[in-house]
Amino acid sequence: MRLLRTLFSYGAALGLRGVETLGKLGLYIYAAHVLGAHDAGLFFLCLTWIGLAATIARLGLDKAMTRHIAAELAVGDGPAARRVLIYGLSVSGAAALLAAGLTAVIAQPAATHLFSLSGLGLPLMLSAIVILPQTLAFALGAALAGLGRGVAAQLVQNALWPVLTFLALLLWIDSIDGLILALGVSLAISCLLGFALLLRDRHRLAETHPQASPPDPMPGLWETALPLMTVEITQVVLASLPVLVLGIVADAATVGAFSIASRISMLVWVIIISIATLAAPRFASLHRLGRIEELRRYNRLIRLGVAAIGLPAIAMMLVFPQTLLGLIAPEFIAAAPALQILALGQAINCVLSCQDVLLSMTGHHRLLRRLNLLQLVVGIVLSAILIPFFGMIGAALIASISLAQGAIGTTFFAQRLIFSKK
Hints:
The chain is mostly helical. The protein is 85% helix and 0% strand.
């Protein structure tokens, strides 16, 4: 019966990810079709900025909440999980307001002096409105994941807002400004849903079930969050770096073409995040209870599942890149070589998936931070060398090298530190 429930949960999660994938793919492709390569480039620069600001504002508390809530509930301490939830949401919300205000102030100077794109000023200023709901949507989803509500977490974090924004684009939006405002409203609706779903589980946060032999206490929330903050910021900087540097040295149309290729390749990443969201609380629970062999089997199952789903999609990107990009508009076909390079990086990430989540959920967040900082150093150095000389191809190489470096490093240390212990 438990196996059937697990299979149903994963089936529902993957079905929801299918909805998310269609929503995001439709949103990005139709936005590129409606806006054209130039304005699409401006839109994707704004999305990159929003993602970076919201990740910084979460301060690593989202992943820390997932781990701590799941671990405290595993030993029957609901009140401790509730304290983590309230604190994490409050601090993340306050940081998001600060990030939004800073974005509004520097939007026009950044558009003029950093990117040399005068048309970027107003869209970037409107992007400030989106930072708060995006931050809270991810924090609420992380809390739901810690409660074991992985499907609900995905709905709040990733699935609902792209569908709603895509529908708005189909029905009446025809400009960058309107599209960014629609994105903000869609994320706000996701936040309201997240709060409602948390209220349904509030009784679990009040229950206490003392253990006969309680395990060691959890570390402080910030002890988990601070290294994870570095990890998350580093990861989003690595993802954003090719687009931002390309935006500085190339025109908006080139940024738009590369961004579309990048978003298509990241559909594999969507699959990985989907399964990782479901796996994270179980990683934390099994490790807290000391059931390492069961954790090993579960980790193997997760990796096989991701590979079985992701590799066929990667094959399509490698074999038919021009066809995929040509479906959007002929002006995007120039990004076909970049899409193939990006797909190769995603292939390695797919085969060696979810090991960063495994490390973070088992207390190895400081190691994860060091691995990510090493990725960042490599990414910055390569960006300074490759993008000015090779443009879009250089940006694709940097993205793929970063993915491969991260996947290989986390897999090596997960095997060495978690599963090699006697």
